[in-house]
Amino acid sequence: MGRLERLGAWVSACQGRTPPKPLRRMRVVVFAADHGVVARGVSRGGPGTTRELLTALDAGGTALNVLADTAGAGIRVVDVGTDGDATGPDHVRRGSGSIDVEDALTEDETVAAVRAGMRAADAEVDEGADLLVAADIGAGVTTPASALVASLTDTEPVAVIGRGSGIDDNGWMRKATVVRDALRRCRAVTGEPLALLRTAGGADLAAMTGFLAQAAVRRTPVVLDGLPSAAAALLAEELAPGARSWWLAAHRAAEPAQVLALNHLDLDPVVDLDIRLGAGAGAATVLPLLSAAVRLLTDVADKPTLPADADIT
């Protein structure tokens, strides 16, 4: 069965048993935050866009809602950095700094966001999750994500910049300029994951990094979505070497930085859907495929063995 069989084998390896157990509790964890670079015109979304997207998700009206429901997966939202009235232990800041001229977070905020992601992973695993999805909602998030990938893979800005939310040529040039300036600020902290998140990341990317690392520590498989989760995965692998064995790249996004990150991690996407900003939709699309791949290893009978003296003429 080709790749289907290999997907089932990956789940089996993560579970440490064969045949694998059916996937009963799949969960999509969405990390939400605002980014100061939106004011630079790098995204079609403006102030308030992230909150609008969260409202739509809460009302059940997004692509993620439909696809997660189709897959039988639940959704958890972790608001770590929206620019609004959110409160609680997970919310560390009201929007990040504009990474071209200032740090995205303080050192304490970076640590707090990483720990928020770790808590989210622990909470889901403790509640019985057998497969997780790392997703994001945040206007402008592909800009810091691209900067992080460029820094970690030593790539020029023009080679990592995509169209994100559908920006025009002028928006693309503004985005490239922001990433260029952010990379200059990253030079002093190259190779330091937490310092990179502080300098050019954001609360959502920091939380996702902690989430991915902790899920691996808890021996729970995670499906990566688009560019933000791929950027966080690069950093999580630095924090917890070998964690990538617990991750599956769901789809190849229409963002060059995501392709670079996945190549660096040696992760081969399952499908290519030409999605730019799925906010978890691309990963949710793959969940029924994973469930089917597991069932192929548990429910399909082995090829029958004929007796030595059988007459098959």
Question: How would you describe the overall organization of this protein?
Answer:
With 313 residues, this protein is α/β, with parallel strands linked by helices. The protein has a single domain (23-286), classed as 3-Layer(aba) Sandwich (Rossmann fold). It is 47% helix and 9% strand. The protein contains 11 helices and 5 strands, in the order H-E-H-H-E-H-E-H-H-H-H-E-H-E-H-H. The radius of gyration is 20 Å and the shape is globular.
Which features would summarize this protein structure in a list?
alpha/beta; 5-stranded parallel beta sheet; 11 helices; 5 strands; globular
Quick overview:
This protein is of the alpha/beta class. The protein contains eleven helices and five strands, in the order H-E-H-H-E-H-E-H-H-H-H-E-H-E-H-H. Strands 2-1-3-4-5 form a five-stranded parallel β-sheet, with helices on both faces.
CATH class descriptor: Alpha Beta
Overall structural class, as computed from helix and strand content, comes to alpha/beta
Taking the sheet with the most strands, its summary is: 5 strands, parallel
Strand content: 5-15%
Give the CATH topology.
Rossmann fold
Secondary-structure element series: HEHHEHEHHHHEHEHH
Under CATH, the homologous superfamily reads Nicotinate-nucleotide-dimethylbenzimidazole phosphoribosyltransferase (CobT), large domain
Fraction of helical residues: 40-55%
- Please tell me the CATH architecture by its name: 3-Layer(aba) Sandwich
Distance between the termini: 29 Å
Radius of gyration: 20 Å
State the total count of DSSP E strands: 5
Shape: globular
Spatial ordering of strands, largest sheet: 2-1-3-4-5
User: How much is the average pLDDT?
Assistant: 91
Number of helices: 11
Low-pLDDT residue spans: none
* Total individual domains: 1
